[in-house]
Amino acid sequence: MRAPNEIDFWRGFALVTIFINHIPGVYFERFTFRNVSLSDSAELFVFLAGWAMRKLMDGPARALPAKWLVLRLETRAFQVYVAQMVVTALAIALLAAAALCLDAPFLLDWHNASAVFNDPIKAHIGLVLLTHQLGYFNILPLYVVLLFIAPAVALLHRHAPALLLLASPAIYAAALVFGVNLPTWPVEGTWFLNPLAWQLIYVLGFLLAGEDGIGGFARRRHAILRWLALPVVALGVAVGMTDFSPDPVYLPEPKLFFTFDKTFLSPARLIHSLALTAIFAGTFKIIGRWLPRPSGYLCLLGRNSLNVFCALSLLSLGGQIVRYIYGGNVASDAFIVILGILLMGFIAWAAEWRERLRAALANKPLSP
């Protein structure tokens, strides 16, 4: 088990806020930072995924030959893919069970699920291909794509770091200029989180985690960057509190460079997310000292992020169904949120207990 650290802490923080934000209308949603921000926990989660991969590259995988590095990274990508398949199947079953038990067939239309019941053959092919995604279950598909391209990122960094620094922004810019996104099928549309754009914040997390290159540059000038980030974050607070969004009609081409679009991770959202990182980077030591138990709990969630993310996805859907049945008020919303966060902690604890048990059995001498 890893000791509490900054990556796990902020990943745990992102998981809790994603859980709350995935229950629309819940009372505590108004206290998450997306209400005073241009960016939200999705950017933080993807950025930290890139950061964690760099720590792997500079640590345990540093000496791995290319073929074993590719195998290790693609194995992790396949694990996340399987998790997406399982959690989506459970979500569909949960919606179907709720529709039957509550005699509420309209629940089968929630979150883009109707195709699964109206056109199951094509829809299930789409689910396997990741071209059909349920609403609120569309972060893991992005993560799967990013993990599948992780070997390319890692090998480019090893052998042609300058090319990585040029290629990633170029792909991002092309996506915004031409409005390119991956298509969905069988329901016509595009991905909610465009991998061609979101790969940039993943790569930036990877590069900034290093001790050299732009990561070293940022560390040496962290104090200056923090001061430069303050007005950006303050502007984000003003935009978030006023719910301001520029009217695309009056924006110059290419419009995606000037909107606050989440699908294409518009520059405003990207810059704001990086500004938040510049301000809060390094604060875990202070937070951990003053709030040891809450910070330790968030680290527990962050250490087991995949298990917890799958659990929170289903728990948030369950919270939506409970709010439909009983309505929403402060008391019931508090019950949903507290219970959900406790269950997320239990899932994380059970995952670590299982690993400890496996290690203990592996080290136990065989009886004669």
How would you describe the overall organization of this protein?
The structure is a single chain. The protein is mainly alpha-helical and 368 residues long. The chain has one domain (6-355). The chain has 16 helices and 2 strands. It has helices at 6-21, 41-58, 66-101, 114-118, 120-129, 139-148, 150-159, 161-178, 195-208, 213-220, 222-242, 267-280, 284-290, 292-303, 305-326, 330-363, and strands at residues 183-184, 189-190. A two-stranded antiparallel sheet has the order 1-2. Helix 2 packs across helix 9 (195-208). It is globular, with a radius of gyration of 21 Å. The two termini are 31 Å apart. The model has no long low-confidence stretch (mean pLDDT 94).
Keywords:
368 residues; mainly alpha; two-stranded antiparallel sheet; 16 helices; globular
- Widest sheet: strand order? 1-2
Arithmetic mean pLDDT? 94
Biggest sheet statistics:
2 strands, antiparallel
Give the SSE order as H and E letters.
HHHHHHHHEEHHHHHHHH
| Whole-number total of structural domains | 1
Rg on CA atoms, Å: 21 Å
Large-scale geometry: globular
Report the β-strand fraction as a percent range: under 5%
What would you call the structural class?
A: mainly alpha
Compute the separation of the termini in Å. Answer: 31 Å
Helix content: 55-70%
